[in-house]
Amino acid sequence: MNAIYLDHNATSPLDPRVLEAMMPYLREEFGNPSCRYGPGVNAAYAVERARLQVAQLIGAKPQEIIFTSGGTESNNLALRSAVRTMGRKHIVTTSVEHPAVLNTCRDLERQENCTLSILPVDADGRIVPHKVLQAITARTAVVSVMTANNEIGTIQPIAEIGSLLQKEDVLFHTDAVQAFGRIPLNVENLHVDLLSLSGHKILGPKGIGALYIREGVSLRPQITGGEQEFGLRGGTPNVPGIAGLGMAAELARLEMENRTARVTSLTAHLRDRLRSTIPGLLINSPNRDCLPGTLNVSIPKVSAPDLVDSLDREGICVSSGCACSEGKRGPSHVVLAVTGDPDRAMSCIRFSVGPENTMDEIDHVAHTLSKLLPRPTP
Ligand SMILES: Cc1ncc(COP(=O)(O)O)c(C=O)c1O
Q1: Given ligand 1 and candidates 8, 152, 178, 319, which is best to mutate, with the most ligand atoms within 8 Å of its CB?
Q2: Which of 219, 251, 283 delimits the end of a domain?
Q3: 0.85 cut: is pTM over it?
Q4: Which of 309, 335, 356, 357 is the most exposed, having the fewest neighbouring CB atoms within 10 Å of its CB?
Q5: Where does a domain end: 225, 251, 277?
Q6: pLDDT tens-place string over residues 91-137
Q7: Residue 299 sits in which domain range?
């Protein structure tokens, strides 16, 4: 791809070292990990090595990691299973969750008669921890609060919420798809029971993810079949994808500090350039506790989807709002929840920078953007 790619929260390029780690399992090591002969054992070894690599990145035990097809499936497994396992029908979540959580909750509302408490956020997109506690009732099965927001980057106070919930008889789930491998995470410090993660935001492959399930929490499978993944997820495992996720997790663990420093300085430069060239620019990302590399801005009176199309014609990839809602051309539900301003939610652009981006690319993007915008009338 020759385009300048600033959409790492949608997905990220595959690291060549990750591809290399996957290749044997696409070629000669094609065995089914459930089989007892040599090739099966080799594949099973690759799966267990990856389980350890993923576990190490979040301070979990390997047996607490269940491989899935990605963040969406992990969220579905966590929420649907929590409701069934707990035998209760109330869910507490937030207005800024990804559709993989919000639409799963809405489906549970329709299909299982669940009731939802969808909590509002403050002007930074952040949840006030004690409001979560106040929302809990005797009917609450699960609380689900994302670790970092995919659109504006807000990092939620998960550890504080987790510690408040410790005495409550509810499961605490966090969708950590954007945070995994990008900021330090430790399931003990966060006091979470369930944590969703994905491979493709951290230079890993698409279609692979995992759910951390705290030891002692018993969930019911959502995909029934064979006894794979400790009986929690039937189906022959995606061995190449799992090996790739393991390697991506390992590299993220070793390189997180350098990657963070790099994307932080690139994003700061982008913010400064945009501020100095675009009159009336509004910053939707929070000033503090923001996912490194994420910058969401609104440009008054500009239609974000049209601007995204114009940037695409110039060879620049960015998103308006959430990639999963792209094509709908509606306002961003996150920016709307944070600002209450439909115009601002229609005019927001998300830049998400990755470790392979350069200062020259940032300068080029800022220059192109200011060239594309209508000149202010004198
Ligand atoms: C916060 C969040 N949760 C869940 C998902 C879905 O993950 P996946 O694409 O692996 O299904 C995404 C992907 O954009 C995300 O940003």
Answers
A1: 178
A2: 251
A3: yes
A4: 309
A5: 251
A6: 999 999 999 999 999 999 999 999 999 999 999 999 999 999 999 99
A7: 4-11+255-372
